[in-house]
């Protein structure tokens, strides 16, 4: 054990870091972050990463990274302000291009 571990100071490859007791967030289970983010967006439309973080209790950085990944896969889309879920399937337009009968 490192001589300074009792002080919350850890040395990794020559870099000293400090971790305050009780300040570390618990890790979210795999897939749970995505589920929480998509759930928040489904309830409130377009939201910023900060809005989603407040609504879910997740860290801002975690939410921001998750939203970026979801945008790349098309599971969310960028809105005028923040992100939103893609629109539900729109009514099909007949081949002639007109909705009138």
For the biggest sheet, the summary is:
2 strands, antiparallel
Query: Strand-and-helix sequence, N→C?
Result: EEHHHEE
Helical region count?
3
- List unreliable stretches of 5+ residues: 89-93
Question: Judging by the overall fold, what is the CATH architecture of one domain?
Answer: Orthogonal Bundle
Helix-strand category: alpha+beta
Structure description:
The protein has 101 residues and is an alpha+beta fold. It has a domain at 28-86: Arc Repressor Mutant, subunit A (Orthogonal Bundle), CATH 1.10.10. Helix content is 35%, strand content 12%. It is built from 3 helices and 4 strands. It has helices at 32-44, 49-56, 60-73, and strands spanning 9-12, 15-18, 77-78, 83-84. The protein has a two-stranded antiparallel ribbon with strand order 1-2. α1 (32-44) crosses α2 and α2 packs across α3 (60-73). The N and C termini lie far apart (79 Å). The model is unreliable at 89-93 (pLDDT under 50).
How is the topology of this model organized?
Layout: E1 9-12, E2 15-18, H1 32-44, H2 49-56, H3 60-73, E3 77-78, E4 83-84
Antiparallel strand pairs: 1-2, 3-4
């Amino acid at each position: 054990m490192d001589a300074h571990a009792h002080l919350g100071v850890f040395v990794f490859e020559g870099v000293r870091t400090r971790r305050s007791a009780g300040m570390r967030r618990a890790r979210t289970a795999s897939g749970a972050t995505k589920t929480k983010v998509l759930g928040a967006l489904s309830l409130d439309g377009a939201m910023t990463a900060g809005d989603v973080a407040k609504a879910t209790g997740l860290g801002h950085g975690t939410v921001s990274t998750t939203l970026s990944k979801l945008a790349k896969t098309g599971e969310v889309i960028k809105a005028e302000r923040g992100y939103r879920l893609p629109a539900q399937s729109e009514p099909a337009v007949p081949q002639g291009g007109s909705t009138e009968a």
